[in-house]
Hints:
The structure holds two protein chains of two kinds.
Chain A: H1 7-40
Chain B: H1 10-16, H2 28-34, H3 37-53, H4 60-84, H5 86-91, H6 107-128, H7 131-152, H8 159-168, H9 170-179, H10 184-207, H11 211-215, H12 220-223, H13 226-245, H14 255-276, H15 280-285, H16 289-317
Amino acid sequence: MLSRNHELHRRRSGRNGALGVILGALVLLIFAVTVVKLAGGGEIRGFDHTYESLVPAE
Amino acid sequence: MSRSTFEPRGALLAELGGGAIGTGDAELRDYFALLKPRVMSLVIFTAAVGMLAAPGALHPVIALASILCIAAGAGASGALNMWYDADIDARMRRTAGRPVPAGRIGAQEALSLGVGLSLLSVLSLFVFANPISAALLAFTIFFYAVIYTIWLKRLTPQNIVIGGAAGAFPPVIGWAVATGGITLEPLLMFGLIFLWTPPHFWALALFTKGDYANAGVPMMTVTAGRDRTRALVLFYAIALLPVALAPTFTGAGGPVYLLAALWLNARFLRGAWRLAKRDDRAAEADRHLAERQFFRLSLIYLFGHFLALLAEAGLRLGGLTLPGWPHLF
């Protein structure tokens, strides 16, 4: 049985830590893009169950 | 010489040192190496220039996210290339230490990483930017992994000429991210990288003597001979001149670009001429000094042109443009 201080465990721990950082960065990136897209928001329309005409009022 | 594209490669690879599974000894830097970081850095730089040279404003977060997607797509291409070419890599001194032929990462693992990153990068770019840039990224990965790596590399000495298109797409993708379309400017950037790729790789092939022949890759130096390759380097250096100068008179260029392009092309032509007029005996005598210098110069050449385009974009942003500068195209 390998001890917990074995080289293999140390290496795996390093890899797992780095993967965690990469996944965390991905989450932050998607969050940031979402905020930017929502802040732009020109094409996003709320839906409130009421009829709304898309024909511009004259 | 060249083997069939569909020859089973697993047994051969295992015989050469690598394998499908890998030893499990891989460190993070091995996975990073699988993504070909040096190629990736060039892709990031040219895509960023394509993006910044394009007209219109792009939100910095969207720009950063898009660049990361393009970088991930380039990394995916690198992993797929290393998966398929592990048998070739194992036979060449320059590439024998790569993670798959060295056995640190299994071929299947490289394939999984390549496919996974491809899907993630293309889908993310589709959501972050627009469908055109995502489609271009998908086509670039397909072109590099399938058209170049699987099909052309082992088939024809024109491999690097046609395969060079894959490396030429990033500035077009960057431009498409910013504008949602393609115009002449990114196509000229494409042409610049496309025509630059053959002399760049042939210079490398001239001083990594024997490597490609040992691996059975039909590189121009192997099939047409080294003297003919030297002449072709000069031919491409001449063909590059009009393509490299043309952006000067588009919306992306200007006087700074013109000066940089003139200087870089003069040096590039001089280097190519030096290569063309000497033979292998002279090259052996100085240990391929001119070939090595030309290879380094080719990196400066490409970097210099894109840096000049970036400088022009910066000047436009600061309102420092020369009034009356001709835009011919």
